[in-house]
Amino acid sequence: MNTVNPTRELAVFLRTRRERLHPGDVALPARRAPRRTPGLRREEVAELAGVSVDYVTRLEQGRGLRPSPEVLEALAGALRLSEDERAYLYDLAGQRPARQRTARRTPTADDEAGPLARLVADLSPLPAMLVNHRFDIISWNAEMAALMLDFGTLPPEQRNSMWLCVRHPGLRGFYRDREHIIREGIADLRAAWAAHPDDTALSSLIDELTSSSEEVARLWALRDVKVNARGHKRLVHDAEGPLTVAYEVLAPLQAPGQRLVIYRAADPESQRVLDAVVRASPAARPRGSAVSAPG
Q1: In angstroms, how far is CA 206 from the centroid of its own chain?
Q2: Which InterPro entries match (predicted)?
């Protein structure tokens, strides 16, 4: 099972982040001698972070070190990590502050029902759905069902937006920028994977996706880390044609780990298409149930 091995993952993550940088990215003078490996040298990272070269080497070799928050902060600065990558680094090292770890706990069944499901329905006519950190689809409204598919017809284990994007044949052409959408989703799942190392359902999902899709396996190996909160998706509805939606992802304070996803038409033509989608699908109706994944 693709469970988190923090020591190994920390080693590989630090190495891949080092290899993506160049001296000019961190205001180091370029050397005339050719570089035998991509990116910064370990000596350069050690200098930027104020630690020894031996320490960086042992970290990248996975030799059981547990860096302090101060060292992690120095490494994050040296490697120019984003906020999401920085949180990922802290999670792998087991050094995330307690209040932030609580905010990323695995939701319970009680979290996944009730007022938030009613809020999803109340957001009509905007397409909306409630997901958890694994992208399990907990509840949805009629507009989201009309736009994508009626999730209520699927077995509960398939009600997962990443699984659907990668494996459901009916959604194969739904995303015009499919690889970009998958890459963003994988970067988000990787952040959740480190934040929830004991979530066997999440590990099983990642195993299934990486073993069944060469594309997912290749993108997972890039170790991108990014929690997606806002953006655009270019879609193609099978009956009404192309449209672009702007999405917002909101994190309810009362349900840590859950996300409220809301779509809006990005332009007048997309609004026309979205209106037609909803009008043409009278059978779509608000439905939803808590996903009860094993583990």
Answers
A1: 12
A2: Cro/C1-type_HTH, Lambda_DNA-bd_dom_sf, MLTR_LBD
Neighbours of 155 (CB within 10 A): 6
Burial of 141 (0-12, 13-18, 19+ CB in 10 A): buried
Stated pTM of the model: 0.81
Model pLDDT for residues 233-292, shown as the tens digit of each residue: 999 998 999 999 999 999 988 887 899 999 999 999 999 999 999 887 754 444 444 333
**What tokens does 107 get?**
């939701």
Phi, psi of 222 (to 5 degrees): -70, -20
Domains along the chain with CATH numbers: 6-96 (1.10.260.40), 109-288 (3.30.450.180)
Cα 159–chain centre separation: 16
Task: Report d(CA 264, CA 260) in Å as an integer.
Answer: 13
Residue type, 258: Q
